[in-house]
Amino acid sequence: MRGLSPRAATRTVLNHGRPEPTGEQVLLADVFDMIQHLDWHVQAANVAKRSDLPKRPKPYPRWWDTTSRRTHSPERVARIEDARRRQSARRRAIAEGRIA
Fold first, then answer.
1. Whether the model pTM is above 0.85
2. Is the domain of 29 the same as that of 55?
3. Which stretches of sequence are listed as region Disordered (predicted)?
């Protein structure tokens, strides 16, 4: 396993179809994040008012990292699905001319 390429079929199957990142990809994502944070710190240090602070940078998307993904509670999923149902019903009613 250790001697195989990160793109080897065996490693991909063991990772549920996701190829492993190369060391360069991991390193470049970390470097990109550090540059973003450095740029943010420079901008934040040079604002006059606290209300003018820029937003903190989001981390570079790491497609290989599945642990950082947020899991939604069943209640949240139910609320989102209910809102989508109401939205589609409203769009149908508007398209049919029942409401303006």
1. no
2. yes
3. 1-21, 50-100
Question: Could you tell me the two tokens for 16?
Answer: 């549920």
Long-range contacts of 17-22 (CB under 8 A, 24+ apart): 18/63, 18/64, 20/64, 21/62, 21/63, 21/64
Is 8 inside any structural domain? no
Q: Where are the extended beta strands (E) located within 1-100?
A: none
Neighbours of 82 (CB within 10 A): 10
Count of domains for the chain:
2
**What CA–CA distance (Å, rounded) separates 20 from 24?**
11
Q: Which of 56, 61, 30 is nearest to 43 (CA)?
A: 56
What does the pLDDT look like over 28-73, one tens digit per residue?
999 999 999 999 999 999 888 888 888 999 999 888 877 656 677 8
